[in-house]
């Protein structure tokens, strides 16, 4: 078994801005695992919010050797981007060796398309209204917020896309007081879900607060070990493979979260179709699916995922799995 790591850059279709900053390209790591004449692939997006860099994650992966297994990865790598890329590459490799699809190996029903959110970048209200109007045909829009002046932005998006369902992602940008003040307006404007309104280290303030709109844990939720810390604060758990450390843990987290009464959202970092492909399996039947990373790119990988009116479709075997 031989493992290779490469760095790939995908230009974005336009500048993408959240409360923590802007970017014009997606920088990812691609893992290839070669064994028995076949190759499995996986992709991850190192994320500075979790103290990850391209160099640090590549070093984690390059330090691996021997006959890797998905179960063994739990002892070799923590939850995070490095384990995600290797885990997904191992799933792909196993599928190729068995001449089966990953969903078959995992004992899952055959997947189908799921409606996905489309993300509107943080901008001035007039620009966000224009973005919303351009995408008003989409059934589900996600708005990046997280500033002290978000009401005009929210009003602008609702005016630009009056029929779309809206979810809001504050990216830890609000205080408890700001969230409490905004909550009635979120209801008035028909917002269906609020993602991570408070910083992960300050979310105890959500305990006992009214949640007229369901609140989703993102930065506060990584893997199954996160679940005990969410009680009384959140209604929904956002599962991202770059946080869980791969498809294996993502499926376990989904089952555990549902068993504890949470709804599930399946999200992504900004990456290519290769990164989204495994997540489409976790997304089946999720309350919210947010796998629009490829839609934000100026160019994607070959055999890219299909997006149409039915949503994001599961991958072709030529892409992954």
Structural overview:
- The chain is of the alpha/beta class and 321 residues long.
- Helices cover 31% and strands 23% of the residues.
- It has helices at residues 54-62, 70-76, 81-98, 102-105, 125-134, 151-160, 176-188, 241-244, 247-259, 273-282; strands at residues 2-18, 21-35, 38-44, 118-120, 140-144, 165-169, 191-195, 215-217, 236-239, 263-266, 288-289, 307-308, 311-312.
- An eight-stranded parallel beta sheet has the order 4-5-6-7-8-9-10-11.
- Helix 10 links the parallel strand 10 (263-266) and strand 11 (288-289).
- Helix 1 crosses helix 3 and helix 5 runs parallel beside helix 6 (151-160).
- The longest helix has 18 residues, at 81-98.
- The radius of gyration is 19 Å and the shape is globular.
- The two termini are 18 Å apart.
User: What portion of residues is helical?
Assistant: 25-40%
Kindly report the average pLDDT value. Answer: 95
Strand proportion, as a percent range, falls in 15-25%
Instruction: Report how far the terminal alpha carbons are from each other.
Output: 18 Å
> Which spans of ≥5 residues are poorly predicted at pLDDT below 50?
none
Biggest sheet overview? 8 strands, parallel
SSE topology:
Layout: E1 2-18, E2 21-35, E3 38-44, H1 54-62, H2 70-76, H3 81-98, H4 102-105, E4 118-120, H5 125-134, E5 140-144, H6 151-160, E6 165-169, H7 176-188, E7 191-195, E8 215-217, E9 236-239, H8 241-244, H9 247-259, E10 263-266, H10 273-282, E11 288-289, E12 307-308, E13 311-312
Parallel strand pairs: 4-5, 5-6, 6-7, 7-8, 8-9, 9-10, 10-11
Antiparallel strand pairs: 1-2, 2-3, 12-13
Helix pairs in contact: 1-3, 5-6
């Amino acid at each position: 078994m031989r493992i290779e790591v490469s760095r790939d850059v995908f230009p974005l279709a336009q500048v993408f801005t959240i409360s923590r900053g802007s970017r014009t390209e997606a920088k990812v790591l691609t893992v290839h695992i070669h064994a028995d004449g076949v190759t499995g692939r996986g992709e991850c997006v190192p994320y500075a919010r979790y103290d990850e860099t391209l160099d640090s994650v590549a070093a984690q992966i390059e330090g691996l050797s021997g006959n890797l297994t998905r179960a063994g990865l739990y002892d070799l790598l923590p939850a995070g981007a490095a384990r995600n890329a290797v885990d997904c590459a191992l799933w792909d490799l196993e599928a190729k060796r068995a001449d089966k699809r990953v969903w078959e190996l995992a004992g899952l029903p055959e997947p189908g398309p799921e409606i996905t959110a489309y993300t509107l970048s943080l901008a001035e209200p007039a620009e966000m209204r224009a973005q919303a109007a351009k995408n008003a045909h989409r059934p589900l829009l996600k708005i990046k917020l997280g500033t002290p002046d978000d009401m005009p932005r929210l009003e602008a998006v609702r005016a630009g896309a009056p029929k779309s369902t809206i979810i809001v992602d504050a990216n830890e940008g609000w205080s408890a007081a700001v969230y409490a003040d905004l909550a009635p307006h979120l209801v008035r404007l028909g917002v269906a879900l609020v993602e991570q309104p408070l910083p992960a280290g300050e979310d105890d303030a959500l305990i006992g607060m009214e949640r007229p709109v369901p609140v989703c844990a993102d930065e506060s939720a990584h893997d199954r070990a996160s679940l005990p810390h969410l009680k009384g604060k959140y209604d929904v758990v956002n599962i991202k493979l770059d946080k869980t450390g791969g498809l294996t843990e993502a499926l376990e987290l989904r089952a555990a979260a549902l068993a504890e009464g949470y709804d599930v959202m399946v999200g992504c970092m900004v990456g290519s179709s290769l990164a989204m492909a495994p997540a489409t399996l976790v997304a089946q039947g999720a309350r919210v699916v947010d796998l629009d990373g490829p839609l934000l790119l100026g160019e994607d990988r070959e055999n890219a995922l299909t997006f149409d009116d039915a949503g994001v479709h599961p991958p072709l075997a030529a892409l992954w799995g």
